[in-house]
């Protein structure tokens, strides 16, 4: 089997979503900052009508978007799978790999 290549799968947590599979919608990050500043300025939370107005007037949304969405890097899996050559995988775990090239 001279021309056969053996592969293993390397599975690592996705760095972009920290393995959660979802990321926060950037619009919600902006809304949270506005909400906090409103509360700090006036001493109370904005009523739902003011919050809806922020979404439409400031963020340009006709409907309130989801707070999170599937991570675009791992497609919601929370992990990244990569094919790894068997010899590389063995070397990565410090397993002595014999050299058969002589």
Q: Helical proportion?
A: 25-40%
Strand count, sense and barrel status of the largest sheet are:
2 strands, antiparallel
Q: Stretches where pLDDT falls below 50 for ≥5 residues?
A: none
Q: What's the average pLDDT?
A: 91
Structural class: alpha+beta
Major β-sheet strand ordering: 1-4
Order of helices and strands: EEHHEEH
Shape: rod-shaped
Q: How much is the radius of gyration in Å?
A: 24 Å
Q: How many helices in DSSP terms?
A: 3
* Separation, N- and C-terminal Cα atoms: 17 Å
Give the tally of β-strands: 4
Q: Tell me the fraction of residues in β-strands, as a range.
A: 15-25%
Topology:
Layout: E1 7-13, E2 22-24, H1 26-42, H2 48-58, E3 68-70, E4 79-85, H3 86-92
Antiparallel strand pairs: 1-4, 2-3
Describe the structure.
It is a single chain. This protein has 102 residues and is an alpha+beta fold. Helix content is 34%, strand content 20%. It has three helices and four strands, in the order E-E-H-H-E-E-H. Strands 1-4 form a two-stranded antiparallel sheet. The radius of gyration is 24 Å and the shape is rod-shaped.
């Amino acid at each position: 089997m001279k021309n056969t290549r053996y592969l293993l799968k390397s599975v690592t947590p996705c760095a972009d979503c920290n393995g959660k599979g979802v990321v926060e919608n950037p619009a919600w990050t902006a809304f949270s900052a506005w909400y906090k500043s409103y509360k700090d300025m006036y001493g109370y939370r904005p009523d739902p009508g003011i919050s809806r107005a922020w979404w439409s007037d400031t963020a340009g949304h006709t409907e309130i978007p989801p707070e999170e969405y599937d991570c675009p890097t791992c497609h919601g899996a929370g992990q990244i799978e990569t094919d790894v050559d068997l010899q590389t995988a063995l070397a990565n775990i410090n397993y002595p790999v014999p050299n058969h090239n002589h």
